[in-house]
Structure formats: C-alpha cells, structure tokens
Design a protein that fits this description.
The complex is a heterodimer of chains A (377) and B (256).
Chain A (H helix, E strand, L loop, with lengths): L5 E7 L2 E10 L4 H12 L8 E11 L1 H15 L6 E3 L3 H11 L14 H38 L6 H11 L4 H23 L7 H40 L2 H7 L4 H38 L5 H11 L2 H27 L5 H32 L3
Parallel strand pairs in A: 2-3, 3-4
Antiparallel strand pairs in A: 1-2
Helix pairs in contact in A: 1-2, 2-3, 4-9, 4-11, 5-9, 6-7, 6-9, 7-9, 7-10, 7-11, 7-12, 9-11, 11-12
Chain B lengths: L1 H5 L3 E10 L2 E11 L4 E5 L6 H8 L7 E6 L2 E2 L5 H9 L1 E4 L11 H12 L4 H14 L16 H12 L6 E5 L7 H18 L2 E5 L3 H6 L3 E6 L2 E6 L1 H6 L3 H8 L1 H7 L1
Parallel strand pairs in B: 3-8, 3-9, 6-7, 7-8
Antiparallel strand pairs in B: 1-2, 1-4, 4-5, 9-10
Helix pairs in contact in B: 4-5, 4-6, 5-6
Classes of the chains: A alpha/beta (377), B alpha/beta (256).
C-alpha cells in the first residue's frame, strides 16, 4: 500500500496545479524534501498555484509539514498558493501544522576564538571558587562537629557505623590484596637491582621506609578516593537530583549534620585503619618475596627491619592518614552537593571528585614531606 | 488492509506475569481496537503499569502471547520487532526524558536513529510537535531539569509522537498536573487522536480523563480484566470495586 510519492505539475488554464500523489510520510522524507525544494522554484511566477492533495494515499506530520512548507514559500510571490482537495481525515492535521511558527529554531552558538578564551578564563577563575567551596565545606563540617561535641546525643551513630562498614570493613580485602602485591613488587625489584652490588639485605631498609612513610598511606588514600570518594559523590549527587536534600532541609535538618558528618567521620576513622593494615600487608608481601626469591630468612628480615626503621617512620605515615581522609571526604561531599539535574552532571562531578581527591592527596603528601623534613623526622 | 482495520491493534492472550512467587497478572486477555482511546484503571498495585511494561517488552512474562500490529512479539525477529517499536510511542510516568539532552535533542533522538531526514526538516518537525503539545518554541533549548512537571509530560509526549506512531502508551499522563493542565492534556490527547489517527492506551486514575477522553475503559483486578466497555457500562456494573470507583464521592463530584 506504500507507493512512491510524486508531485506533478499540470497546467489548468491560467493556473498551475501541483498534484501530490503517493505516500507522504516520514520514510520518504528525503525524496519529498527534494521534490518540494524543486517545486519551490516556481515561486514568484505569474501563475496562480494550487496544491492538489486529493490523491495522497497517506499523510503524516512530516508530509503535512512539507506541503505546508511548499505552500508558504509559494505564497511569497504576488499570488497566494492554495491547498486543494484535502480529505476530511487529514484536514485537521494540516490545520494543526499551519499553526507552527516558521523560523522559530534558534541555532546553538558557534565556536569562536574569543569564546574559547572566555571558556579558559572562566575555568581558571573557577579554581578560586573550588578552593572557596572546599574551605566552606570544611568550616561547615567542623561547625557541625563542634555542635555534636556539645550535644553528643545528636551524633548519628547508626549512620556512622553503616558508613564505617561500607568504607572500612568492606574495603579491607581489596586494600590488603593490592598493598600485599605492591610489597611483593617493591621487594622483587629491590633484590633484582641490589644483588648486582651484593647489597641484597638493604632491600629491607628500602621496603620498610618506603612502605611505612609513603607508599602504604598514599596508595591506600588513592584507592579510598577512587572507591569511597566516588561513592559519596554519587550518593549525595543523586539525592540532590531527586530533591531529597531539599526535603531534609524543609524538615529542619541540616544536610551537613545528617549526611556529610557521618560520612566524614567514617572516612577519617577508616583511613588510618586501612593504612595500617595496608602497611602490614605490604611488609608481609615484601618479606615473603625476600625469603622465597632473595633468600633472606624471616629472622634476618625482622632483625634488619628492626634496625632500619624506627617508630618515627610509622608515625610519619599514619599521621597523614586522617588528614588525607578529610581531604577526600570534603572534596567528595562538595562535588556531590554541586550536582545539577542531569545524569551527565552526576558523571562529571563523580569524575571531578576522584580526580581532585587524588590530586589533593598527593599535594598534601608533598606538604607533609616538607614539614617532616624540616622538623627532622 | 481491510482485515487489519477489523483486527485489534493490540491483542493480549492469557498472559501471566510473576515476580518471585507473587502472581501479578494471571491469564489476562485484552484487545485494543484501532483508533480508540482505551482508559485502563484498577486499584493501586493491581499491575496496570506491569501490563503496560509487559506489552512493550520491558517485563518478561511467564506465559501467554502478545500481538501488536498483528505481529507476535515472541516469535518475531529483530527487524520485525524494530518495525513495531518504530510505530509505537511510550510516555513514561515520570517522563523519562534524557536529562543530558535539550528538549529539541530529546524529540529528535528517535528521528535521528530511525529516519534519514535533513537537520532543517527535523528542526521544523520538532517545532510542529512542540506546537501540537501546546509548548512554545522557546523551550526547545532548555534541559529537562529546567522544566516544570506539566512541561516534562508535554515534552515526553512530543518525544513519544516524534516518529508519528500509530499507537501510544500513556502511563498516568495527568498525574501530578493541576486540574486545568490535566483537562488540557485530555483535550490534547483527543485532538491528536483525531488529527493523527492515533490509538491510545492510557493508564490513568483520573476520573475526568475517563469521562472526557476515553472511548472505552478496561478495569484490572486480581490479575485479570474484570470489566471492559463504555463509561455507561462501568456505571451499570455491579462489581464492588467498580461501584465504589464510579459511585464514590469523587466520582459523584466529577459527574456533577
């Protein structure tokens, strides 16, 4: 029942008839558009024109609009074009289409050099806003924390414990596995290269200092930023999207106290624990490789480790953990609460949360390195 | 063609849908005729949305068959199925607009996938669809999060209509709209049915919609269709739920 659409020109006395036949539907749109564009060239002629649609087998919005487009462009001349032979079925559709305002489409802006420069400028200026946002959140969290210290009953213990389970307990297997493997790799590389100088045993010094001071906590912080920071941002972001946070506010709750503080507390408690477990796993892995691959007996390993490291190394490492946790948590919560209405925005902010979280963790690590070097630890 | 006119556009036979051990639909039969507006009612949680989602293929069924446009959806191949999907439009309860696309991109999304149409024609058709659903062209560059609830429903309807479907599914189209907006929406559905020759499958709780927009009403209860017919049939029915529904306080208020 579908037949190719046609638009034939038939002279009828002084007038010109354009006879539309066949199926005028979306599936024939390219053909129809070409025919209509062709016929539009007749505009401005002396003849009066009418478009005969009595033979059209099927018409939909696309077809109806193209006939209307043709009528409009033919009407630009001295004579008005008419549509004739409209069946009752389709007349209401054509009437409906006639109400459409043409040329109402607003095109999106084009890319210009000035526009790009403006974009860069705005992004740079936005950095200040990011820092201000982080400080703002830090202040709000501390204020909420002091309120909780004054009224300990307002502490949301259940929520905190729940988040502890999520970010600490459930993270233990993966954190232990990865730090174990990293310990193995450090020891293997150390032995492989130190052996040439006959300095196998110094691998213990390297492993101990590296794991306890730097790698243990830094690696765990980066993994927590990827694992829990992103989860915080996605949770808060989707709550923001569904107006759940607005709902909390209208009930007289402070979202910082209800949502952010338990998450922050969980993270600040979790990261030192995870960093400690991670460091132990890395030392164990390194020791195992040193024994099996490097032939360093466990007793020798432990003796050497006791000489090589002091409690200072461990303190330097573990002191950094809660600070890094706070940075990750604040970045994640700021990004979560900045999510706008769309799924795309949620994705952007979750990405930003992880990227900024890791960035700030490394910056903090550098700051700590300078600090501990200057106090001689 | 003549035969197709007589045949129902949707033919549901003995379908059973189960979630775990809960049987939601139990051997349900339903026909939707070409060109009608079918209002679908039933108590909350009776499975109205489940039936809609089963017909459009989002919920798997345990038994039974569904034919849409004379195509059995179980035995059809991908291209037949694609063909059927191209001929129906769905308006979800919450609109389900793509939140990262503008109104215009939302409406043009199905056109881009299924049709080979120039950008100019797509833009013009988008304007035509927006006009049809009673929106101003200015909204076309807004994102869904910048629209009001009523506007979201209208844009979602425009998207459902973007390929000029023969059949539309509306899941509670007037819920969350003010009475005037809801009345306009009913009017709109009527107009579109007239102008585009649509068949409409409308899940609704809105008594006004049932009275003003629907040609026929089907009632779901206990996993089956307990009644189907005109509004007069419904009022005459002795079924207890129907009596309560059509003779309750709110129904009397609607009837004046």
């Amino acid at each position: 029942m579908n037949s190719d659409p046609k638009l034939e020109r038939i002279a009828k006395g002084k007038a010109l008839a354009l006879c539309a036949t066949g199926t005028w539907t979306a599936s024939f749109a390219p053909v129809l558009e070409r025919m209509v564009a062709d016929a539009e060239k007749l505009a401005g002629g002396p003849q009066s024109i009418f478009i005969d649609v009595s033979e059209v087998a099927k018409l939909d919005t696309f077809g109806a609009w193209l006939i209307e487009r043709l009528r409009r462009s033919l009407t630009k001349g001295p004579v008005e074009a008419q549509i004739a032979g409209l069946s009752a079925n389709y007349s209401s559709l054509v009437d409906e289409v006639r109400r459409v305002r043409a040329g109402a489409v607003v095109e999106g802006g084009t890319v210009t050099i000035t526009g790009m420069l403006e974009q860069i400028g705005r992004t740079v200026a936005g950095v200040g806003g990011t820092i201000a946002g982080l400080v703002d959140m830090l202040g709000a969290v501390l204020a909420a924390w002091f309120r909780v210290l004054i009224h300990p009953r307002t502490l949301r213990l259940t929520s905190t414990v729940h988040h502890m389970e999520q970010v600490c307990w459930r993270a233990v297997p993966i954190i232990v596995l990865i730090t174990f493997l990293i310990g193995c790799i450090i020891a293997q590389q150390g032995i492989f290269h130190f052996r040439r100088f006959g300095a196998d045993i110094f691998v213990v010094d390297m492993l101990g200092v590296l794991v306890l001071r730097e790698i243990g906590v830094l690696l765990v912080a980066i993994m927590v930023a990827g694992r829990s920071g992103s989860a915080y941002t996605a949770e808060l972001g989707s709550m923001k999207m569904r107006e759940e946070i607005d709902a909390l506010r209208t009930m007289g709750f402070d979202p910082i106290e209800v949502l952010v503080l338990p998450r922050m507390m969980a993270l600040v408690l979790a990261l030192p624990i995870l960093a400690f477990l991670g460091a132990m796993a890395a030392l164990y892995g390194g020791g195992l490789v040193a024994w099996l691959y490097g032939g360093v007996e466990p007793e020798a390993f432990l003796l050497r480790l006791r000489d090589a490291i002091s409690i200072d190394h461990f303190i330097v490492g573990i002191v950094k953990a809660p600070v890094m946790a706070a940075v990750i948590g604040i970045v994640a919560c700021v990004e979560g609460l900045a999510v706008q209405g769309s799924a795309e925005s949620l994705g952007q902010h979750t990405t930003a949360s992880v990227v900024k979280g890791i960035f700030f963790v490394i910056v903090m690590d550098g700051v700590f390195a300078i600090f501990f070097a200057s106090i001689g630890m | 063609m003549a035969g197709e006119m007589q045949d129902p556009i949707i033919r549901v036979r003995d379908i059973t849908v189960q979630f775990g051990s809960t049987r939601v639909l139990d051997g349900l039969n339903l026909d939707v005729k070409r060109g009608e507006i079918l209002g679908f009612v039933g108590p909350s949680g009776a499975g109205k949305s489940v039936l809609t989602r089963t017909i459009i293929g989002l919920v798997p069924k345990v038994a039974g068959s569904i034919e849409v446009f004379g195509v059995d959806l179980d035995s059809s191949n991908t291209s037949q199925r694609r063909n059927v999907e191209r001929r129906w439009g769905v308006l979800f309860q919450q609109g389900a607009l793509f939140s990262s696309l503008t109104v215009r991109q939302n409406i043009q999304f199905p056109m881009r996938e299924y049709l080979r149409v120039s950008q100019r024609l797509m833009d013009e058709i988008t304007m035509a669809k927006l006009t049809m659903v009673g929106l101003k062209p200015e909204v076309s560059d807004r994102f869904p999060s910048e629209l009001s609830g009523g506007m979201i429903k209208r844009v979602a309807l425009a998207r459902a209509l973007s390929l000029d479907p023969d059949l539309v599914f509306l899941d509670e189209p007037t819920s969350g709209l003010d009475p005037i907006g809801a009345g306009d929406f009913d009017e709109l559905v009527r107009t579109l049915q007239r102008t585009l020759g649509l068949t409409v499958f409308m899940v609704t709780h809105d008594l006004d919609s049932l009275y003003t927009a629907c040609d026929r009403i089907a009632v779901l209860g206990n996993g089956k269709i307990i009644a189907a017919g005109s509004i007069a049939d419904m009022q005459a029915s002795q079924h207890p739920w129907l009596r309560q529904y059509f003779h309750g306080k709110r129904a009397r208020a609607v009837m004046g």
